[in-house]
Write a structure and sequence with these properties.
Blueprint: H1 2-18, H2 22-33, H3 38-43, H4 53-90, H5 109-123, E1 127-128, E2 134-136, H6 137-140, E3 165-167, H7 172-181, E4 186-195, E5 207-217, H8 222-237, E6 243-250, E7 253-262, E8 279-288, H9 290-295, E9 304-311, H10 312-320, H11 333-336
Parallel strand pairs: 1-4
Antiparallel strand pairs: 2-3, 4-5, 5-9, 6-7, 7-8, 8-9
Helix pairs in contact: 1-4, 2-4, 5-10
This protein binds zinc ion (ZN).
Zinc ion binds next to loops.
Length: about 350
């Protein structure tokens, strides 16, 4: 029986040593130490032993059991450690792998130039005003001296929500809101979307952007208008940039002018881009019509003002030499990534 016990001890210890996972180890525990295990099986035969042999074998059996138990618990610890190690290894971050590229967005060219223009005007003491894109006929036309039958309404055909409510055709509507709510001195610009019922082509879009400017104070003249616009254009296109005012007609300004800017390409000499003119038409401007001032409750015998409306797309196209307006609205990455 002594040999049997020693054999079980040897077998158990070597079986534990070669065991590779916890489940197998548990099976071995049952096999050697369990109620129906090998060691218990031997101890059940103790009754057959003589009185002298029994304590000797009993002691040996205890020693064997404790040795097997120690070996088992050592192995359990080892397995737990190696499993943890394997888990850590599996979860290690491989810093040699190429990283994921996060695509960084950039501002749309319209936003870049709009922000730049806002900065220039803020520097000149202007405030930035905002107004609704869905507008009453009154603010878009009537208050700007364009009564219902005025022919100029034809050139500003737009999208109507009702007979009386429309998508604004010009940011000039913001002028009226500002003058209704604020007493002079007024110095504001109002950038925003405007709408016209135009078919899309290289120079037309049913949606585009304007920046409206309005100054109302005592003693404002055309000279202030010209100086302000000259300052704007020189900041946008360089110190040597000149502007030129040509007489024109707008219902809401009197006198009115179209403003040309010296060609950025030929600097006034005349080239293909300016069609030999040396200047390029960029915006409309004028002195606020007394009727418009009076309509907003401003005494036109005390105050005068100037206003201008600048097409943002034109400035952007000029700035970046873009020859097709549609590029600004198609949202083609290949185009937009260049800015
Ligand atoms: Zn030119």
């Amino acid at each position: 029986m002594k040999e049997q016990l020693e054999a079980i001890q040897k077998e158990a210890i070597s079986a534990f040593e070669s065991c590779l996972d916890t489940k197998e180890l548990d099976n071995l525990r049952v096999k050697f130490l369990g109620k129906k295990g090998l060691l218990t099986g031997i101890l059940k035969q103790m009754g057959k032993l003589s009185a002298e042999e029994r304590p000797v074998i009993g002691q040996l059996a205890n020693t064997v059991r404790s040795k097997i138990e120690t070996a088992l618990s050592d192995k359990q610890k080892k397995l737990a450690e190696s499993m943890l190690e394997a888990k850590m290894k599996a979860e290690t971050i491989d810093i040699t792998l190429p990283g994921k590229k996060n695509k960084l967005g950039s501002l749309h060219p319209l936003s870049i130039v709009e922000n730049e223009i806002k900065e220039i005007f803020l520097g000149m003491g202007f405030e930035i005003a905002d107004g609704p894109e869905v507008e009453y006929d009154y603010y878009n036309f009537e208050a700007l001296n364009l009564p219902p039958d005025h022919p100029a309404r034809d050139t500003q055909d737009t999208f109507y929500i009702t007979d009386n409510i429309l998508l604004r055709t010009q940011t000039s509507s913001v002028q009226v809101h500002v003058m209704e709510n604020k007493k002079p001195p007024i110095r504001v610009i109002a950038p925003g979307c405007v709408y016209r019922s135009d078919a899309v082509d290289a120079t037309h879009s049913p949606l585009f952007h304007q920046i409206e400017g309005l100054v109302v104070d005592k003693g404002i003249t055309m000279a202030d208008l010209k100086g302000t616009l000259e300052q704007l254009m020189q900041r946008l296109y360089g110190e040597e940039c000149k502007i030129r005012l040509r007489p024109h007609h707008f219902p809401f300004t009197e006198p009115s002018a179209e403003v040309d800017v010296m060609c950025f390409n030929c600097h006034g000499k005349g080239c293909r881009i300016c069609k030999g003119e040396g200047y390029i038409e960029l915006l409309g401007a004028g002195m606020v019509h007394p009727k418009v001032l009076e309509g907003c409750g401003i005494d036109s015998s005390v105050y005068s003002g100037f206003a201008f409306g600048l097409g943002l797309e034109r400035v952007v196209m000029r700035r970046y030499n873009i020859d097709d307006l549609r590029l600004l609205f198609e949202n083609d990455y290949r185009f937009l990534e260049q800015f």
